[in-house]
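Supplementary Text 2. Reproducibility record for the structural model of the 331-residue chain.

All settings were left at their defaults, and a single model was retained for analysis rather than an ensemble. We include the record here because the model underlies the residue-level annotations in Supplementary Table 4.
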Amino acid sequence: MKKVLSMLLTLALVLPSLAQADRYRLSLSTWGSPKHPQVTQFVPKFVEAVEERSEGRIRFRVFEGGEMVKQQFVPTAVPQGTVDISLTTLDSWSGRIPEISILASPLWTWSMTTSRDNLVPGKPVFDYFDQKLRDRGAFMIAMFDIGPPVLSTRFEIEKPEDLKGRTMRVYSKGAGQVMQALGAAPTTLGVGEVYSALQRGTVDGAMGGLGGAVGLKHFEVTDYMFDQGGALGTLVHAYVMNLDKFEQLPPDLQKVVMEAAHEARTHAQQYMIDSFDDLLETVRAEGNTVARLKPGTSEWDTWRSALKPLVEQAKETYPADLVKIVEAQAD
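Retained model, structure tokens:
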């Protein structure tokens, strides 16, 4: 009887530990406006799908607005395991992956619909940078185009010369190179610093995503918005995950994570395509003057001509095979 009781006691102690061994808690971090579609249209769908399909074996802790990791620190935080999954601006990885800046260069003229169909697993650009991230302890679970960055400014922009001598907020090395090529003085600021910098006049304008500019109400402290339509490049973001944490998951849960990420990404990307014009109308309704640059116009050609030296330099800077991949899908 004593032996039986001893075995039952042992089982009572061991079984809960075994049950917990097959359960995983993942942290997910975003930054910028919590109202941005890259957050509102991705995170809830992804989290709900993973938790449901894993039957509760995976649970999430979600941190918004840079509460856990700020935008500029993601390339360090994810590989180190400070956070398991995070939203990221891919060009912010340029210190670790120099060629990733091609995504923010004028060489990148993909439309959002081209990105929708090609920034997915199995396609050349996704696989190229996914491998680069894996070499550094992270990997791509979703990659998407939030649209051409807009310029929210205190001055009117019509032609490239209007930027000369202006102090412009940028978000990465690649964006800084574009502004510098146009004669502006770039200064890198985190997304949470932009509103106050515009308000105080520390910067004359800010380059950034349209969704973030609207969500963080930059129109309250600016008078103009310039939608450059992709002439200056676009903004490619992603959700990346710590590689070791992913590999600790059993194969069936790895599959759950990747399938849920793909579905949530497809939904979010299409939503951003469909809502882009509506966001511009919101800025107009708030009193800003909105100017739009359209491909195929003489104005477009003027801006592209101003960036031609940077484009030619980029072709020499980045690996030839990568340039070929990017140009093969150029719009």
